[in-house]
Amino acid sequence: MKKIISILLSIVFVLSMTASAFASEEISENNIYFTFDDTPYNSMTSDFIEYEVQQGEEVRVNVLSCTWYPHTCNIEIGILNLDNGMDYAGPESGGSCTDTLVFGDMDAGRYMVFVRNTSAATVIEGSIRYSLTSAYG
After folding, report:
1. From CA 97, how far away is CA 132, in angstroms rounded?
2. What letter does residue 137 receive in the DSSP assignment?
């Protein structure tokens, strides 16, 4: 009987550890890549991968590398809520960047990562490699 109780307690412990790990890390996508060529002023480009975000979560877009030409163009990297149209972005300039963009206390919904050209000149070519994570704040 003691052996059965010990085994059951072990199973409960493992399940509780697994459940808490999943509760704190809802999204974890690594090394996603897309290009944003021929992007005119105020246009958004995305990889169209949707991420489900829960109410109150913090979302981190870890920009591993991002380059674009002409380097005089300014861009924004951010996330777009596909359910309500709200977007959250951080500005980037100089033709290349690495950055971690943190967006807190998000509304629940489906989101996607985007790049937007904020300069009058067209971005001729560009690419971004990122990872995305979310957790309750």
Report:
1. 16
2. -
Entry pTM = 0.79
128 contacts 100 by C-beta, under 8 angstroms: no
For 7-53, the DSSP string reads HHHHHHHHHHHHHHHHHH--EEEEEEEEE--SB-TT-EEE----EEE
| pLDDT (tens digit per residue) in 53-68 | 999 999 999 999 999 9
Nearest in space to 63 (alpha carbons), one of 109, 28, 31 = 31
Give the rounded distance of the alpha carbon of 56 from its chain centre: 15
- Please answer whether residues 134 and 27 qualify as being in contact, where contact means their C-beta atoms are separated by less than 8 angstroms: yes
Burial class (CB within 10 angstroms; exposed 0-12, middle 13-18, buried 19+) of 53: buried
pLDDT, tens only, 60-96: 999 999 999 999 999 999 999 999 999 999 999 999 9
Q: What secondary structure, in 3-state letters, does 41-71 show?
A: CCCEEECCCCEEECCCEEEEEEEEEEEEECC
Q: What tokens does 111 get?
A: 């989101």
- From CA 92, how far away is CA 10, in angstroms rounded? 50
